[in-house]
Amino acid sequence: MSADPAFQTAEAEIESLRRRVAELEGELSRAHSDETRLEQAAGMLAYVPDTVLMLDRQGKLLYLNRTRGALKMDDVLGSSAYDFICLEHHARVRDMVERVFTTGEPQRCELYAADGDGGWSWYACILGPVWQHGEVVAVAGSASDVDNFKRAQQALQDANAELESRVAERTRDLRQTNAILRREAAQRQRAERGLEEQSRLLGLVLDSMDVGVVIADRQGRITRINPAAARIIGCDSSNAAAFERRWYEATFLPDGGSPALRMDLPLAKAAHGESIEGEEILFMHPELWEGIWLQVTARPLVDTAGARYGGLLVFRDVTLQKRAVTALRETEQRFSSILQNTPAVVYIKDAAGKYLLVNQAMEDALGLGSEDIV
User: Fold this and answer.
1) How many CA atoms lie within 13 A of 194 on its CB side?
2) In 10 A of CB 203, how many CB atoms?
3) Would you say 253 and 261 are in contact if contact means Cβ atoms under 8 Å apart?
4) What Rg do the C-alpha atoms of the chain give, in angstroms?
5) 277 within 8 A of 297, measured Cβ to Cβ
6) Which residues contact 147 (CB under 8 A, 6 or more apart)?
7) Which tens digits make up the pLDDT trace of 219-260?
8) Cβ-Cβ contacts under 8 Å for 225 (sequence gap 6 or more)
């Protein structure tokens, strides 16, 4: 007996329904599994320190792993992400979202957004595509709070700017100081050249003088002599120490027999502040055939502030003048002796007939004394 067609059709429909039920049960199982995975993923994302989000093309928040501060999830989901982003950064974020949708390439930026407690913080954001059936259907991203880093970075930049400003200021100060030092160095060099020139001229003057010049320090130690002084004393002008020994060892007082003490000599007196004018001393040294007479003038050396720092001695050899005076005196004595002892009458008159000189024979002839005749 053949099967009833209506019965066969019913069995086929039943079998089809059974297969569909099985498919639906599989899809339901997969959906439950996906939902479980999504719940697990959401649970894990809730503990991620970064903010994880999903946006549509207009910037509406489709997903947020957690809120910050006093914000509630129901108040945030479905709202525009731009409500929480600084107005100055809206155009940049819109451009990034559009590039993700059109190119499918991730985008990065830093932006200033609300922190949930009425304040604002800096976030480093990464936005990437969410693909479905080969097209971008949403934008997923993460936002890391980098506010402390940005503030530290800004503080570092401020500190660097302050440091650069201070370095620039110190550099200016150093340049000004260097300029001043260079000017002072140039002035000192000019002054030193002037002093060197004055010293050179002074040396030329001293070397060309025909009188002896001796310079001593405050203790009376001889520091410089000119060639005339060395020539008169009989030593080398380049050896002040030898001159000093000879000077202090061979100088006598005007009586010619008493050695002069160092402290009594004109140069030592001048070094201690005393002035000597035209004093005569006798210099006697074994290398000399006979002593020489010196006429000395000594003055203390003082600076512009009046501080004493040595003495100056100027002397000339007056031995020949001294000998001429002695010879003249001896000649006068001999002439007077001859004049007074001759028996002839001798007298001298001026043009007016007045007696200027008479001898003893003249006095005897007139019977008058010389004081009555002259």
Assistant:
1) 6
2) 12
3) no
4) 63
5) yes
6) 115, 121, 122, 123
7) 888 888 889 988 888 888 778 888 888 887 777 766 666 677
8) 212, 213, 214, 215, 237, 240, 243
Q: How wide is the angle at C-alpha 353 spanned by C-alphas 352 and 357, nearest 5°?
A: 120
Local structure of 280: helix, strand or coil: strand
Residue bearing tokens 């009989």: 234
Which token pair is 139? 């934008």
66 token code pair: 């957690």
Q: How many residues are present in the chain?
A: 374
Residue 354 tokens, joined: 């007045």
DSSP 182-204: HHHHHHHHHHHHHHHHHHHHHHH
Q: Which of 131-140, 196-205, 314-323 comes out lowest in average pLDDT?
A: 196-205
Alpha carbons 157 and 153: distance in angstroms, whole number: 6
| pTM of the shown model | 0.46
261-282: per-residue pLDDT in tens? 777 788 888 888 889 898 888 8
Contact 216, 308 (CB under 8 A): no
Coil/strand/helix, residue 237: coil
- Helix, strand, coil percentages (3-state) for the chain, rounded to 5, are 50, 25, 25
CB 343 within 8 A of CB 337: no
Contacts 24+ apart (CB under 8 A), 301-306: 301/215, 301/270
